[in-house]
Design goal:
about 220 residues, mainly alpha, 12 helices
Length: about 220
C-alpha cells in the first residue's frame, strides 16, 4: 500500500512538472513572477549545508521546481496559493531529508493549510499570537508582567518562531524533531505554542533579556 502511494505521488509530480514546463505555462505572467520570487529566496536558503552549497547546485533547482509546481496547481481541488517568502525555508529541509521531489511536495502540501494561514499576511498570524499572549498570561504571569512593562504584549518577537516553526532558533536536527512533533498533532494542534512558552521560560529569566527582545521586535 505504501509503495503504491509512493508511485502514485511520483507519477502525479512528474505529470504536473511536465505541465508547467510547457511553453505556454512557463512563459505565463503568473509563472514568471512566481519563478522570480522563488529563485530569489531559494538561492539564500540553507546554503550553509553541503547539500545546498556551491553554484549550480542541482538540489537548489529541485527545491525551485517543487515550489513552482506547488504554486501553479499541485492541489486539484483548491486554487493554488501564491508563493510567499518563507516557503523555501520549509521545503528545503524536507527535500534535504527525503531527497525526493514528490515526497517533499506531498509533505509540504499536508502541512500547508496551517502554514499558509500564517504566510498570507491575513489574520492567521494575528490570531496565533493572540493565543500565545493569553497562554503566556495564564501560565507565565511573572514573565507576562515584564512584557507588559516593556510594551511587548503584541508578541511580535515570536513572529519568526511561528512562521518557520522554530527552524532558525535551533540546530536543524533539533528543529526537525520539533517539526515532527508539531505536525503529528499528538494530543494537541497547538504544540508550537507550548514550545514558544518553553523558550520564553528558559531563555528569558530576567528583565534585560526581555528588553532586548522588545527592542528587536519594535525594529521588525
Amino acid at each position: 500500500m505504501a509503495c503504491d502511494l509512493h508511485i502514485s505521488i511520483a507519477e502525479k509530480y512528474d505529470r504536473k512538472r511536465m505541465d508547467i514546463l510547457t511553453k505556454s505555462v512557463r512563459e505565463s505572467e503568473e509563472a514568471v513572477k512566481i519563478l522570480k520570487d522563488v529563485y530569489k529566496d531559494v538561492v539564500r536558503t540553507d546554503r550553509e549545508f553541503e547539500f545546498y552549497a556551491g553554484d549550480g547546485n542541482p538540489n537548489l533547482l529541485a527545491v525551485s521546481e517543487i515550489l513552482l509546481v506547488f504554486c501553479l496547481g499541485w492541489d486539484d481541488d483548491v486554487p493554488p496559493p501564491s508563493y510567499v517568502q518563507g516557503m523555501s525555508d520549509i521545503v528545503a529541509p524536507m527535500y534535504m531529508t527525503l531527497e525526493h521531489c514528490a515526497l517533499a511536495i506531498a509533505c509540504f502540501h499536508s502541512n500547508v493549510e496551517r502554514l499558509v494561514a500564517y504566510f498570507d499576511g491575513g489574520s492567521g498570524m494575528h490570531d496565533l499570537l493572540e493565543q500565545l499572549r493569553r497562554l503566556t498570561a495564564h501560565y507565565l504571569p511573572e514573565l507576562y508582567r515584564i512584557y507588559e512593562a516593556h510594551d511587548m504584549v503584541n508578541f511580535f518577537f515570536c513572529y519568526r518562531w511561528m512562521l518557520l516553526d522554530f527552524k532558525r532558533e535551533f540546530p536543524l536536527t533539533d528543529a526537525l524533531a520539533i517539526w515532527e512533533t508539531i505536525w503529528c498533532k499528538h494530543r494537541t494542534n497547538s504544540f508550537h505554542l507550548f514550545v514558544a512558552m518553553a523558550i520564553m521560560k528558559v531563555y528569558v529569566p530576567c528583565k534585560s533579556v526581555a528588553c532586548v527582545w522588545g527592542r528587536r521586535a519594535k525594529r521588525c
